[in-house]
Design a protein that fits this description.
mainly alpha, 7 helices, single chain
């Protein structure tokens, strides 16, 4: 039997996990280096050492176990990928929901009633475009989560090979 190819949703999840983890790690590295050069005495406390060890260690472990587990078809990689997608979707809903609500209110109620909710003056066309893009990205991430969680190809991809496939 031929080895099953990697589903596109798994590849997309791996790329998203790598990009997110690398950005977070670079952000903490920047904070560490900035503190090291501007005020190195602040790094001498147990709390600072523990924070930076945890802040730099967790994303690296996430990359190794999450992306590596997805790459090697391990079950823990599947669950870490699923947990990552759930966290990303929860963060997106938490951060985009107020903006989408404000945009819809601005469109429905008119600009005078919703001015106190908007920061600055934006055209209605720009607000609609912003609403469409945010909604589209949110829907794409939710579809990816559902595809990885319930897709038959994805579940089959992580099943251990049978005796006939090993031979």
């Amino acid at each position: 039997m031929m080895k099953q190819s990697r589903p596109a949703s798994i590849i997309i999840t791996q790329i998203l996990m790598m990009l997110s983890s690398v950005v977070i790690t670079l952000g903490f590295t920047y904070a560490l280096l900035r503190t090291l050069f501007t005020a190195p005495h602040l790094l001498l406390s147990f709390r600072a050492v523990g924070f930076y060890a945890l802040a730099l260690g967790l994303p690296i472990a996430f990359i190794i176990y999450g992306v590596g587990g997805l790459w090697k078809r391990k079950r823990y990689g599947y669950w870490m990928g699923l947990a990552f997608l759930i966290v990303v979707n929860a963060k997106n809903i938490y951060s985009y929901a107020p903006g989408i609500y404000k945009s819809v209110l601005l469109i429905v109620e008119g600009p005078h009633e919703a001015n106190y909710l908007q920061l600055g003056y934006r055209s209605e066309g720009l607000v609609i475009f912003d609403l469409v893009v945010q909604g589209f990205m949110l829907i794409l991430m939710l579809v990816l989560l559902l595809k990885v969680a319930f897709g038959s190809k994805e579940k089959k991809f992580f099943d251990p090979p049978s005796e006939a496939e090993r031979a």
